[in-house]
Amino acid sequence: MRKVVATSNAPGAIGAYSQAVRAGNTVWISGQIPLVPDTMEVVAGDVKEQIKQVFTNFEAIVVAAGGDLSQVVKLNIYLTDLADFPLVNEVMAERFDEPYPARAAVEVSGLPKGVAVEAEGVLYLGD
């Protein structure tokens, strides 16, 4: 079974992709950038505000898929400056409980709309 997951509580796709796709009990969540869903503009503020908005958008999709953050099994974080990695840890500690999901964080040369951070991940809804 393959089903698209979509919500107006997260930014709509800005390209040829879905917010998320459920395949069986696994949900593959597309990269989320710090866009405010209502305006589709980058959130105002510093990098920490961008990271918070990314996880707000990510969580909205998780909820739309019928899950919660405790069911996220994998995150990939993309940063334009790896020096911002401690801020990711700080925001994640506010949003996620242990055991934390598996995670990778990489520095990239650029992200859509010139943002500082993007996150994608995998949600497992169970048997």
Structure write-up:
With 127 residues, the chain is of the alpha+beta class. It has one domain: 2-Layer Sandwich (60s Ribosomal Protein L30, Chain: A). Helices cover 23% and strands 32% of the residues. It has two helices and eight strands. The strands form two sheets. A six-stranded mixed β-sheet has the order 1-2-3-8-6-7, with helices on one face. Strands 4-5 form a two-stranded antiparallel ribbon. Strand 2 (20-23) and strand 3 form a beta hairpin. The relative contact order is 0.24.
Secondary-structure map:
Layout: E1 2-5, E2 20-23, E3 26-32, E4 35-36, E5 41-42, H1 47-64, E6 72-79, H2 85-95, E7 102-107, E8 117-124
Helix pairs in contact: 1-2
- CATH names the topology as 60s Ribosomal Protein L30, Chain: A
The CATH architecture classification is 2-Layer Sandwich
Specify the CATH class: Alpha Beta
| Tally of separate helices | 2
- What is the H/E string? EEEEEHEHEE
The unreliable regions are none
Radius of gyration from the alpha-carbon trace, in angstroms? 14 Å
Beta-strand fraction estimate:
25-35%
Task: Provide a short characterization of the protein structure.
The chain has 127 residues and is of the alpha+beta class. It has helices at residues 47-64, 85-95, and strands at 2-5, 20-23, 26-32, 35-36, 41-42, 72-79, 102-107, 117-124.
Defining key terms:
8 strands, single chain, 127 residues, alpha+beta, 60s Ribosomal Protein L30, Chain: A, two-stranded antiparallel sheet
